[in-house]
Amino acid sequence: MAKRVREARAFVVAVIVLTAASGCTSSSEPPSAKPSSSQPSASASADSTDQPDGALVTDPELLFATWRATELYGRAVDPTLRVGGRHLNVSFAKSEGKDPSWSSTDLCNSIGGHYTVGHAGAFETRSQWSTAMACLPGSPVGESNIKALTDADQAWLDPADGVPAQLTLTANGEPIAVYVKR
How many whole angstroms separate alpha carbon 78 and alpha carbon 71? Predict the structure, then answer.
């Protein structure tokens, strides 16, 4: 029995590594992007000028912090959600000699890489590493977190008392993720 469990774990790890190496993603799609009532809707028209509250991020250092997910693809994230002692966060930090780095979790594996923010506000993450824990079944909310980080094309900061307190990631003008500064 123990041998079968070890073989099953090895198989799951191999599938995860091969999936990550091939760039495949989970077949389970997150809920459709529907902004919450606290976020303006950009779907009113194709020419909509609605934007998230705050300012478009054009300096990557403005993101240097740890941010806790509060909403993903229009659905609230339980602020007490913890797996393995970890909350559903994303951290942005300085990286020596390279673009700044990001790291996060799908509530099982840690994932990270580098990111860029253009002068016109273009936001892009590049996944460069991941742990390969055998975790079944996958967490839809955790997978939505990583999907939002890789789908986002702009980042917006909404200050509270002059200090950025809320980070909203958008894709094609639609809010897809909201984080609060920890």
Answer: 9
Compute and round to an integer the Cα radius of gyration of the chain. 17
Instruction: Provide the token pair at 140.
Output: 């839809």
pTM of the shown model: 0.70
CA distance 161 to 157: 13
CB 175 within 8 A of CB 42: yes
Asked if 149 and 125 touch (Cβ cutoff 8 Å), the reply is yes
**Confidence at residue 79, expressed as pLDDT on a 0 to 100 scale:** 78
Contacts with 12 (C-beta within 8 Å, 6 or more apart), sequence order: 134, 136
Which parts of 74-151 fold into alpha helices (H)?
140-151
- For residues 43 and 174, give the distance between their C-alpha atoms in angstroms, rounded to a whole number: 7
